[in-house]
Amino acid sequence: MSTWVPVPEGSGFGVNNLPYGVFSQRGELPRVGVAIGELVLDLAELANAGLLADRRWFASGSLNGFMAAGRTVWQPTRDRLITLLTDMSYRDEVEPCLSPVADVDLHMPFEVSDYVDFYSSREHATNLGRILRPGSEPLLPNWSHLPVGYHGRAGSVVPSGTPVVRPSGQRRGDQGPVFGPTTKLDVEAELGFVVGTPSAQGQPVPTSGFRDHVFGFVLVNDWSARDIQAWEYQPLGPFLSKSFATSISPWVVPVEALDAAHVPPPEQDPEPLPYLRCAEPWGLDVTLEISINGHVVSRPPFAGMYWTPPQQLAHTTVNGAWLRTGDLLASGTVSGAERDERGSLIELTWNGNEPLELPDGTTRAFLEDGDTVRISATATASDITPIGFGDVVGTVYPSPS
Ligand SMILES: O=C(O)/C=C/C(=O)CC(=O)CC(=O)O
Ligand SMILES: [Ca+2]
Ligand SMILES: [Mg+2]
Hints:
hydrolase; alpha+beta; binds ligand LGMQ2O6W; binds magnesium ion; SH3 type barrels; tyrosine catabolism; Fumarylacetoacetate hydrolase, domain 2; 2 domains
């Protein structure tokens, strides 16, 4: 499959990807677009020109309408876009609908309904257990029987580029709690998936229903204040330590685009209960990359995640809780077995005890004001053109207090 659009080598946005996002030209209203190479294809304009069936989903400041329309709309739209971008005979009509991504503003791609965050990397969960609960078993007995998760704060999910203001809160002190700006500001590199088609109240979605309900994947940075977290989290889990900002990437990679990147996930022992079994191999051969101020500090491998996206979806709905368009379910921090595969600073620096040395001569235990964190990811099966997720970026601003 080759496109007439010039796609630079290694772009990650080839015609096999076509991620959806929301963008605006200077002075114009946001609308839906698709990334190809270093360009964005304006779907509202394409529909205006009579080249796409329906305009109302695309002349919109969010993907929610299109996502709610379901797979019977997503699939023909994707097929049509591939035709328009590969068949030379459409070039003259389609070209006016392309603009350089560098010339547009990218927005929040969808409105988040609910936000769930899992804890599905065995390596991450083991590291956090060792750091936060030394002297006890790092993994609690439930961990290998269900994908542990918590409901996060949907309203604090922000698009890439949004400044992250250093949060204040309580942390443990020698003579009782201390209040002030966090001294342990951290990141968590994750992939998230977003629900398109809702489900009915009381009707669990099986693992085999993943494709019917899920629209696509984004990158997630679950910013975390580790000192606030360590003091507040027992027994109900993280609250203010993670609700001040969660950043997502602007491009939503369609579920189908990743079909070529599936790999068998790690073997699950003990065998999960029947509702968590999954016939398809839903490991994803995606490598994330975390950089601080332009220096790569880690490359976490998503293929090693113990609990897979369909298992997370089935677990979320097994009690009859229903899905809504815009529900965002994040994987949990992606960490591999090697030090340079860990998905958070608390792991990379072992709670600040082993600071990272950056090539610019500075060291980091946790984030400093002014630091810019960039997380990117690519699916790179050997026989496919790499599929990029773009990136999610955030700069730390000082506490206002
Ligand atoms: O082990 C803990 O108490 C806490 C762990 C986390 O902070 C992780 C969390 O947000 C879930 C994840 O990203 O894996
Ligand atoms: Ca997290
Ligand atoms: Mg909520």
